[in-house]
Structure formats: C-alpha cells, structure tokens
C-alpha cells in the first residue's frame, strides 16, 4: 500500500504536538541538555554505587584507545590477572599490539582462502559481498584469541608496546582492506582462468609478504624472544631470559584457555537452550578454533558466573554496551534513562526480538570483576572496562542485574563449574548459523 506523506498530515502532527503541555516541557529539556541528559534517572545513579560483596579484581585498567580490540584486551586482562596472582605482582600488562599484529596477518590469509572458496560464485552473491565489505577488521571473540595465543604465545607489554596505528586502527584498516580487495580481484581471475594450484599459492605467499611489511611498518615487528622480568609486591626482582612467546604462555603462566567455554543467552526460537552453535565465516585464521557457543537460560548463566567469581577469578563477557550506559559515570542500568516518559512512547521489545531485529547484539567485551549479592541473589556487577581510568571508578563500571539480563549475551566460564549434562551438551554437534547472524563478531566491538 502506497501512501504519500502530505503537508496536511504533517500540519495535523504539529497541531497534535503543540496541544500537549508535556511535549513542550520535554522539548525544552531535550533541546537544552540532549536526549540522554534530559531523560537521566538520578535514582538509578544513586542505586548503582561501587560497593560489592564479592570483589576479585582491582588492578589498573587498560585502554584500547580508538580500536575495536576489546575482545583481545579483555582476554589478556583475564590472563594478566592469573600472572599477577601467580607471581604476586601489581598491574602487570601483556602486549595487545603483539597479538593485534598476528590477528591482522591471519585474517588476511583467512580472507584469501575464503575468496578462493567463493570464486565460483557471482560477484554479487551475498557471500562474496560479505567478504568484500570487510576483508579484515578489529573484531573478534574468545575462541579467536585462543587460536592466537596457542600459536603465537604472549609477551609483556614492554616487549612490544602500543603504536600510533594500534591505538587508532582506522588508517591501517583502510589501507589494508584496500590491498586485500585488490588481491581478491586477481585471485578470482586466477581461479576462473584455471591457473594452477602452485601459481595461486605463490601469489598468496607474495601478498602475505606485503601484508607483513604493512603491519611491521604500522605496528612494529613482533619479537621472536623476550625477557619476562618483574618486581613483586615484596620488592623481589625476578627475570626469565630469552623465552619464546609460546614458552611464556605454556611454561610460565598457569592457565589453559581451552579450560574455558563460551556460554550465551539468546532467547529466540531459532536458537534453543542447551544446544551448541557455531557461526560460519566468523574465524580469524585458517584451521583456527571456531566460534562455538552453548546457549543457556540467563539464571544458569548467572549461576556459573558467580561460581567463578567466588573461586576468585574474573569472567570475560560480551554485551550491548550501546544501551542505557552512562560512559562518564560508568553505570549500566535498565532504568538509567526514562525515554518512555520523555517521549510518552513504549519502546518495549523482548531480548529475543531485539536480537532478531538487530536492535541489540554484542558490541563490546569486558571483564566481570565482582558482584553484589543480597539474600542469595545478585543485584549488581562490577565491570572492568578497557577504556582507560577516566570513566566510572578509575575505569571500573557498574552493571545492574536487570541490565545484565537484558543486554549481556555471552560469558566465558571454566569447564569445572559446569554440570555433567552441560558438559555433554558442549560435545554435541553444533548447529552452524549463517554469517549474517548477529552473533558473528565480524562487527568490531568498541
């Protein structure tokens, strides 16, 4: 049905708006202060103070700057927590730039492989356009960092510090994607003109040499050997010399990332609870660990999270940070903004509806560092962010329990806290979701 918007209808809208005094008050507040400030609920701010009955993490927060590396920062924050605990250190930090380099290199090779696999499809196909839209980017998920750490290890931050291009990845992504798209043209032509496998491999190898050069110029060259040195809280100095990054991870850090599992809460009919899911075209390397998720009900997700916190260990998680979040105060609360009252409208959707209609999806990864429990129920959660120490309480934030229910989508928990039935569900064949599913971490997290 086609119905044009007429001037008469617009005039009727204006008359209707002006006849309501509440609209005038809302307009004055919003035009003067902005929508969020005009709708801010002071009571929600007062309720979400920074006191928690379980508090496991107080080290200095990190800062991902203007990049989409939150998933990487958050995982390395979990690993650094173990290092600090194991060696009695304060504020030890691992190099995010080091893994960022290899993530970019692996994503380039992953892109080339996917271009080869789709070379028989028309250029306008949904698969090919998806690949060309973002040949590589900053986004990722927990299992992708496992692939990187197991292959390349970890290094202290002082061995490969941040560069201008890691702190702001915009220019690097623009130029690298330009090159990858140009290479895709050649690869598709080679495949469709029946070039030999050796010729195609040789071309890809040549291009990866160029990608490596671009990354080295922009980010610096990753070290082959490193020194792991520190002074602990008792002022004792320790130095482990000439380690490879893989040796540091395997021999000097008491953590195995394969002991952890991603669980999600996505309440939609197409993704039943207690089943596992994977997302196609969502990896970062050829033969890397796939993004695999066990979907559980929110109460169970919270129970598992609390078990890990009670054991003294923080929890990696991903959420929709774009919703009801005061970045300066560091407060995530479902009642933080009274948009319904400001606009006199009902914005209600279920979590599943928001997910299906792309109103809400995972946009940011952080670390749960504590929880406040009253009468055996969580009321609010302490969050370690990676946006520097000028927000919230020295970089830590508060997430109220209702917000967690509505906008948290995944957490990573050690297998030891799972039931036998849950572990059995993890081993079942996963349902493979299409690449356009909102769980695909191809969208760079903030």
Automatic annotation (TrEMBL):
PROSITE patterns reported for this sequence: THIOL_PROTEASE_CYS
Keyword match Metal-binding: no
The UniProt keyword set, sorted, is: Aminopeptidase, Hydrolase, Protease, Thiol protease
Concerning InterPro entries, the annotation shows: Papain-like_cys_pep_sf, Pept_cys_AS, Peptidase_C1B
Which GO terms of type biological process are on file? Answer: homocysteine catabolic process; proteolysis; response to toxic substance
- Give the residue range of the signal peptide: none
Where along the chain is the active site annotated? 70, 364, 385
Pfam families the UniProt entry points to = Peptidase_C1_2 (PF03051)
| GO molecular function terms attached to this record | cysteine-type aminopeptidase activity
Q: Name one GO cellular component term.
A: cytoplasm
Q: Per the similarity annotation, which family is this?
A: Belongs to the peptidase C1 family.
Q: What is this protein called?
A: Aminopeptidase
- Which species does this protein come from? Vagococcus bubulae
């Amino acid at each position: 049905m086609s119905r044009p918007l007429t001037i008469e209808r617009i005039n009727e809208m204006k008359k209707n708006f002006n006849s309501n005094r509440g609209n005038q008050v809302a307009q004055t507040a919003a035009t003067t202060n902005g929508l969020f400030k005009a709708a801010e609920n002071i009571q929600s701010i007062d309720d979400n103070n920074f006191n928690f009955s379980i508090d496991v993490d107080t080290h200095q927060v990190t800062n991902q700057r203007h990049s989409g590396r939150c998933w990487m920062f958050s995982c390395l924050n979990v690993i650094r927590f173990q290092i600090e605990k194991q060696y009695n250190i304060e504020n030890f930090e691992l190099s995010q730039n080091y893994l960022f380099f290899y993530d970019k290199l692996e994503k380039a090779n992953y892109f080339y492989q996917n271009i080869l696999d789709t070379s028989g499809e028309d250029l306008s196909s949904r698969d090919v356009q998806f690949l060309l839209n973002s040949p590589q980017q900053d986004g990722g998920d927990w299992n992708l960092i496992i692939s990187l750490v197991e292959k390349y290890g970890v290094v202290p931050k002082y061995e490969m510090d941040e560069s201008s291009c890691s702190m702001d990845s915009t220019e690097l992504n623009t130029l690298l994607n330009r090159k990858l798209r140009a290479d895709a043209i050649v690869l598709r032509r080679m495949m469709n003109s029946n070039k030999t496998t050796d010729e195609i491999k040789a071309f890809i190898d040549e291009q990866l040499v160029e990608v490596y050069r671009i990354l080295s110029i922009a980010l610096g060259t990753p070290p082959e050997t490193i020194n792991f040195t520190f002074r602990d809280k008792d002022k004792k100095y320790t130095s482990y010399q000439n380690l490879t990054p893989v040796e540091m991870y395997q021999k000097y850090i008491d953590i195995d990332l394969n002991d952890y599992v991603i669980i999600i809460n996505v309440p939609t009919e197409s993704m039943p609870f207690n089943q596992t899911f994977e997302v196609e075209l969502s990896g970062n390397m050829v033969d890397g660990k796939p993004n695999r998720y066990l979907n559980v009900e929110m109460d169970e997700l919270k129970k598992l999270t609390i078990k890990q916190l009670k054991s003294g260990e923080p929890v990696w998680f991903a959420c929709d940070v774009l919703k009801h979040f005061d970045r300066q105060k560091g407060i995530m609360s479902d009642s933080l903004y009274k948009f319904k009252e400001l606009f006199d409208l009902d914005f209600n959707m279920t979590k599943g509806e928001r997910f299906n209609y792309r109103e809400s999806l995972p946009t940011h990864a952080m670390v749960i560092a504590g929880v406040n429990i009253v009468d055996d129920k969580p009321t609010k959660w302490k969050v370690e962010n990676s946006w520097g120490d000028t927000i919230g309480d020295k970089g830590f934030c508060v997430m109220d329990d209702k917000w967690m229910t509505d906008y948290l989508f995944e957490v990573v928990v050690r297998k030891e806290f799972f039931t036998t039935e849950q572990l059995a569900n993890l081993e079942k064949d996963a349902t493979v979701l299409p690449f356009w599913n909102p769980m695909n971490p191809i969208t760079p997290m903030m």
